[in-house]
Protein backbone atom coordinates (compact mmCIF):
# COMPACT_ATOMS: atom_id res chain seq x y z
CA UNK A 1 0.00 0.00 0.00
CA UNK A 2 1.41 3.42 -0.92
CA UNK A 3 2.74 5.42 1.99
CA UNK A 4 3.10 8.94 0.71
CA UNK A 5 0.85 11.27 -1.21
CA UNK A 6 2.80 10.98 -4.47
CA UNK A 7 2.60 7.19 -4.43
CA UNK A 8 -1.12 7.36 -3.72
CA UNK A 9 -1.62 9.85 -6.52
CA UNK A 10 0.33 7.65 -8.93
CA UNK A 11 -1.75 4.64 -7.94
CA UNK A 12 -5.00 6.57 -8.44
CA UNK A 13 -3.86 7.82 -11.85
CA UNK A 14 -2.98 4.27 -12.91
CA UNK A 15 -6.36 3.00 -11.76
CA UNK A 16 -8.21 5.84 -13.49
CA UNK A 17 -6.31 5.17 -16.71
CA UNK A 18 -7.10 1.46 -16.52
CA UNK A 19 -10.77 2.16 -15.84
CA UNK A 20 -10.95 4.60 -18.76
CA UNK A 21 -9.50 2.00 -21.10
CA UNK A 22 -11.82 -0.68 -19.75
CA UNK A 23 -14.82 1.61 -20.17
CA UNK A 24 -13.88 2.26 -23.81
CA UNK A 25 -13.51 -1.48 -24.43
CA UNK A 26 -16.85 -2.24 -22.80
CA UNK A 27 -18.51 0.53 -24.79
CA UNK A 28 -17.18 -1.03 -27.99
CA UNK A 29 -18.56 -4.42 -26.95
CA UNK A 30 -21.98 -2.95 -26.15
CA UNK A 31 -22.02 -1.09 -29.47
CA UNK A 32 -21.16 -4.30 -31.36
CA UNK A 33 -23.86 -6.19 -29.46
CA UNK A 34 -26.45 -3.55 -30.32
CA UNK A 35 -25.52 -3.72 -34.00
CA UNK A 36 -25.81 -7.51 -33.90
CA UNK A 37 -29.18 -7.32 -32.13
CA UNK A 38 -30.44 -4.93 -34.81
CA UNK A 39 -29.22 -7.29 -37.53
CA UNK A 40 -30.84 -10.30 -35.89
CA UNK A 41 -34.08 -8.39 -35.39
CA UNK A 42 -34.22 -7.57 -39.11
CA UNK A 43 -33.48 -11.18 -40.01
CA UNK A 44 -36.16 -12.38 -37.62
CA UNK A 45 -38.73 -10.08 -39.24
CA UNK A 46 -37.73 -11.33 -42.68
CA UNK A 47 -38.11 -14.93 -41.56
CA UNK A 48 -41.49 -14.20 -40.00
CA UNK A 49 -42.63 -12.65 -43.27
CA UNK A 50 -41.35 -15.66 -45.20
CA UNK A 51 -43.21 -18.05 -42.90
CA UNK A 52 -46.42 -16.03 -43.25
CA UNK A 53 -46.08 -16.05 -47.04
CA UNK A 54 -45.30 -19.75 -47.05
CA UNK A 55 -48.33 -20.41 -44.85
CA UNK A 56 -50.57 -18.62 -47.33
CA UNK A 57 -49.10 -20.63 -50.19
CA UNK A 58 -49.71 -23.90 -48.39
CA UNK A 59 -53.36 -23.07 -47.74
CA UNK A 60 -53.88 -22.33 -51.44
CA UNK A 61 -52.11 -25.48 -52.63
CA UNK A 62 -54.40 -27.70 -54.77
CA UNK A 63 -52.43 -30.83 -53.81
CA UNK A 64 -54.23 -31.27 -50.50
State the helical fraction.
over 70%
User: So how many helices?
Assistant: 1
* Poorly predicted segments: none
Range of strand content:
under 5%
In the residues, how many domains can be counted? Answer: 1
Characterize the largest beta sheet: strand count, sense, and whether it forms a barrel.
none
Mean pLDDT: 91
What radius of gyration results from the CA coordinates? 27 Å
Tertiary shape: rod-shaped
Cα separation of the termini: 80 Å
Furnish the topology, listing elements before pairings.
Elements: H1 5-59
What does this structure look like?
By secondary structure, this protein is mostly helical. It has one domain (1-59). It is built from one helix and no strands. It has one helix spanning 5-59. The longest helix is centred in the middle third of the chain and has 55 residues, at 5-59. The termini are far apart. The model has no long low-confidence stretch (mean pLDDT 91).
Quick take:
The chain is mostly helical.
Summary tags:
64 residues; single chain; mainly alpha; coiled coil
Amino acid sequence: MPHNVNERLDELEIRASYQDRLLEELNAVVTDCNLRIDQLTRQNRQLQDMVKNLGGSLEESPDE
